[in-house]
């Protein structure tokens, strides 16, 4: 039966404390609060020493019999203790906090305050940390560290699309379920202990880029007596082989179908490829079904590593005689380089101004027999930007590809949604539009 203190408080008389004799309102112990605190121990019988098992390698905590839990902060650690130990969870706790300990002590101290029978009491619970290797890390140590593998590949000389994909994987933490990650010549391998692990990664890749996935399996062991077999599963994921700024020639039937020229520049690569005609400014889209079904129809003739630097000397707007307005899709311009005289060409970059530096493909000196050199002397691809105040943290050399990748992110809001951008203090920039470089 629960003690009803209010029933006693409503009484109009007092009694003497059975210990010290002062006048008090009657209660079930007939003691004052001070005597109750000294005579009655509400923490008596509560266990104050426990053992917590954690995996030293992956830093997860054990929940018997087979579960393991990732813990990022003290709030999650407290939740783990309540889940792990029912006797602590059932205490009438009114406050709790962890007491700082030395890291090498392998000990946690949790200070609790509980209230029972109108008595409050603080006490400490000690947790001894003990190493126990989880089953996943056991498999890694035994060289059986994967059941499934996702092999992401891009057959391209330029890896700018892969740079974006790596950053998207980092932002969305798609690497958390992997037992191992290895860099390969044309991509990355993601290893998983469980068979269902790759499906989340493959679904994520499908939302970011055009992919083609082929699944296969290999029998590793077979026990015919118990009819048990062990397989390893491979998922080969091929992503678009084209990268932004690639110069591509497409088959004539496809060009007529899309109402564009055969020579196109890759303007954007996501779940679709967006091409732009450098002479007219017209754009067309190719989805992954068409691309992988007619892959031979798309041939990269020059990539971003072949880009040369030019300077715009004069801009000529194209005017429509009927509307007397400038053409919004293409302009004429004159450009020059250190070793060439002025060259006249058309470009889809209608925002260019006199004096701008640009990157373009020199088709006049390229060994391409199928190109009309009178029409295509130089194809302008992108503008060169100076002093944007951006940098990339990488162990690799800071080449021009990285610079192009950073510029693409600065001017493409859709790309920025899937990439973490940091300021000089290594804090993530939440509102990039209002951020000043």
Automatic annotation (TrEMBL):
<comment type="function">
    <text>Acts as an adapter for the XPO1/CRM1-mediated export of the 60S ribosomal subunit.</text>
</comment>
<dbReference type="Pfam" id="PF04981">
    <property type="entry name" value="NMD3"/>
</dbReference>
<dbReference type="GO" id="GO:0043023">
    <property type="term" value="F:ribosomal large subunit binding"/>
</dbReference>
<keyword id="KW-0653">Protein transport</keyword>
<feature type="domain" description="60S ribosomal export protein NMD3 SH3">
    <location>
        <begin position="242"/>
        <end position="288"/>
    </location>
</feature>
<keyword id="KW-0963">Cytoplasm</keyword>
<dbReference type="InterPro" id="IPR048899">
    <property type="entry name" value="NMD_SH3"/>
</dbReference>
<keyword id="KW-0813">Transport</keyword>
<protein>
    <recommendedName>
        <fullName>60S ribosomal export protein NMD3</fullName>
    </recommendedName>
</protein>
<dbReference type="InterPro" id="IPR039768">
    <property type="entry name" value="Nmd3"/>
</dbReference>
<feature type="domain" description="Nmd3 N-terminal">
    <location>
        <begin position="17"/>
        <end position="239"/>
    </location>
</feature>
<dbReference type="Pfam" id="PF21193">
    <property type="entry name" value="NMD_SH3"/>
</dbReference>
<keyword id="KW-0539">Nucleus</keyword>
<comment type="similarity">
    <text>Belongs to the NMD3 family.</text>
</comment>
<dbReference type="InterPro" id="IPR007064">
    <property type="entry name" value="Nmd3_N"/>
</dbReference>
<dbReference type="GO" id="GO:0005634">
    <property type="term" value="C:nucleus"/>
</dbReference>
<dbReference type="GO" id="GO:0015031">
    <property type="term" value="P:protein transport"/>
</dbReference>
<dbReference type="GO" id="GO:0000055">
    <property type="term" value="P:ribosomal large subunit export from nucleus"/>
</dbReference>
<dbReference type="GO" id="GO:0005737">
    <property type="term" value="C:cytoplasm"/>
</dbReference>
